[in-house]
Amino acid sequence: MEEILNLVRTTVSGKAAQLADYPVPRVLAICSEHWGTSMFFGPGGAEEIMYGGSIISTPFTTEGPAGPTQITTDLREAPVFRIKDGEAESCRRSVSALLLVHLDPTACHVVGLLHPDPVITDGASRSHGRVHRAASASR
């Protein structure tokens, strides 16, 4: 699972800047035909991907267990969360949603993850070459 988590996080990280500064919500689709992604790109796997994987944690002291066993996460491989100064925060906010798509010979299986805190800009800071060429061609 760690390899899939790293692959998704690095893909989202690499595309976040490319998706920034558009005045509409941006959806990033990650697709795979690999037979194993049917397990990871399903509802259970999507939850693991959203939070970067779960960890079974039990606090210990020199005298033994110091508390209950819990399922936690460190958000290290999370695509839209991170730990900064000891606090969880959202990141890669230019990605409004993530689609995990498993393609097999007979079907397409899609699970979506919504960013909890996306940013949608007014688009004014982005230079769109097509718009400028079309405007200059009409002069």
Short description:
The protein has one domain.
Write a structural description.
- The protein is of the alpha+beta class.
- It has one domain.
- It has helices at 2-19, 37-40, 43-51, 129-137; strands at 27-32, 55-57, 60-61, 64-65, 70-72, 81-84, 87-90, 97-104, 107-114.
- The strands form 4 sheets. The protein has a 3-stranded mixed sheet, with helices on one face. Strands 2-5 form a two-stranded antiparallel sheet. Strands 3-4 form a two-stranded antiparallel ribbon.
- Strand 3 (60-61) and strand 4 form a beta hairpin.
- It is flat, with a radius of gyration of 20 Å.
Which key features would you list for this structure?
4 helices, 139 residues, 29% helix, single chain
